[in-house]
């Protein structure tokens, strides 16, 4: 469980029902929902792409041109694209390949787990694979082994899906870059400001490189707000403790602030001499300055209550998915936070969450906006 970054085991049929409900709520509210597995299967109908994709995913699964590599490749290549995608996502158990796994070098690895190719259960958190910033994308380089292969799906989709055929998506961060960044740390605040968490999953070096690429292109982005958050599994990304719910309203988990609401925040600004840095300690003040607002409403997870706040943060009470200014999707179990959001004038769509929440991600983590309206 822990190597797969789970704290508990979801009951699959219920998790699937809850996820369908999530997609239904989005559709009912004018969001066009696309599924990662369907998009990648469409791309891999092309035989050449299927071939290079398989080479890469098998290599990334730890096999480099040995007997096991060949066995896996021919097994997967002979499946129809949508079946092949499901099998790769679900993982391949060693008995599926049976007696063909006699290679000495692959033997110890194969024997320590029932899988020859590990499953990717965190793929329902599509947010983390990439972020769309303006007209380009930042493809993640994930911190933990359990999630590193996931980004290959989005890399192939952005480069090859007919949806993008007229357009080469500029990349502000590439899958192969050595610096570490994950989509859950990236919050697009408007058309020229983006906030990024300095976290368990995203390094300062990645933020600087992202800022450089955004500033040196015609992305329109001139400000990056780097926000330091605690380094632990409950708060692995910025969006587990801080999200934007309206032009001037944000949810925040109060425990990320020190005494007198102090935090470590840097703004990175574009300037002719390169990046200009400024250190700040007050979140509200930084948001006002960078977004040009007179007032900012910070809505505390669990109303800041010493019991409700950590409980609801653990169950992704700060991880709201904003589908329009002042309109969000949240887990129903976070009733203290949901009530407070409504008291602050936010329209809240609640979704069932008994099983989905066990993966430690909420509605924002479970989605990745590809196209946003210009607001
Ligand atoms: N943006 C997010 O906070 N995503 C949640 C990811 C949860 C997943 N189990 C992980 O640890 O990566």
UniProtKB/TrEMBL annotation:
Q: Which residues form the active site?
A: 365 (amidino-cysteine intermediate)
Q: What's in the keyword line of the UniProt record?
A: Arginine metabolism, Hydrolase
One matching Pfam family: ADI
Q: Could you tell me one molecular function GO term of this UniProt entry?
A: arginine deiminase activity
EC numbers, comma separated: 3.5.3.6
Query: Ribosomal protein as a keyword?
Result: no
Hydrolase: is it a keyword of this entry? yes
Under the heading InterPro entries, the entry gives: Arg_deiminase
Which processes are annotated in GO (biological process)?
Answer: L-arginine deiminase pathway
Superkingdom of this protein's organism = Bacteria
What is the main EC category here? Answer: hydrolase
Task: Give the pathway listed in the UniProt entry for this protein.
Answer: Amino-acid degradation; L-arginine degradation via ADI pathway; carbamoyl phosphate from L-arginine: step 1/2
The reaction(s) annotated as catalysed by this protein in its Swiss-Prot or TrEMBL entry are: L-arginine + H2O = L-citrulline + NH4(+)
What is stated as this protein's family in its record?
A: Belongs to the arginine deiminase family.
Q: What is this protein called?
A: Arginine deiminase
- From which source organism is this entry? Liquorilactobacillus aquaticus DSM 21051
């Amino acid at each position: 469980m822990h190597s797969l970054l789970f704290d508990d085991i979801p009951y699959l049929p219920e998790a699937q029902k809850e996820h369908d409900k999530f997609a239904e709520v989005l559709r009912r509210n004018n969001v066009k929902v696309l599924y990662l597995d369907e998009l990648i299967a469409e791309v891999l109908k092309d035989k050449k792409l299927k071939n290079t994709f398989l080479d890469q995913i098998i290599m990334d699964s730890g096999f480099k041109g040995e007997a096991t590599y060949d066995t896996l490749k021919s097994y997967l290549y002979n499946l129809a694209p949508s079946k092949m995608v499901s099998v790769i996502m679900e993982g391949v158990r060693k008995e599926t390949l049976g007696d063909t796994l006699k290679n000495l070098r692959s033997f110890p690895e194969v024997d320590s787990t029932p899988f020859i190719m590990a499953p990717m259960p965190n793929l329902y958190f599509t947010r983390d694979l990439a972020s769309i910033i303006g007209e380009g994308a930042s493809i993640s380089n994930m911190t933990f082994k359990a999630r590193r292969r996931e980004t290959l799906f989005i890399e192939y989709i952005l480069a090859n899906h007919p949806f993008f055929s007229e357009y080469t998506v500029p990349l502000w961060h590439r899958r192969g870059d050595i610096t570490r960044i994950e989509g859950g740390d990236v919050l697009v605040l408007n058309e020229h400001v983006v906030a990024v968490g300095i976290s368990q999953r995203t390094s300062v070096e990645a933020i600087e490189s992202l800022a450089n690429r955004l500033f040196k292109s015609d992305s329109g982005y001139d400000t990056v707000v780097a926000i330091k958050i605690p380094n632990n599994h409950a708060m692995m990304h910025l969006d587990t403790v801080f999200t934007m719910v309206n032009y001037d309203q944000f949810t925040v988990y109060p425990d990320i602030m020190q005494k007198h609401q102090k935090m470590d925040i840097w703004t990175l600004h574009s300037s002719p001499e390169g990046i200009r840095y400024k250190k700040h300690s007050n979140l509200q003040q930084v948001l006002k300055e960078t977004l040009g607002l007179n007032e900012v409403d910070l809505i505390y997870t669990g109303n800041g209550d010493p019991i409700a706040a950590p409980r609801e943060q653990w169950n992704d009470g700060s991880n709201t998915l904003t589908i329009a200014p002042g309109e969000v999707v949240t887990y129903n179990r976070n009733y203290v936070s949901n009530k407070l959001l409504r008291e602050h004038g936010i329209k809240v769509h609640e979704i069932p969450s008994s099983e989905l929440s066990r993966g430690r991600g909420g509605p924002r983590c479970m989605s990745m906006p590809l196209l946003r309206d210009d607001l």
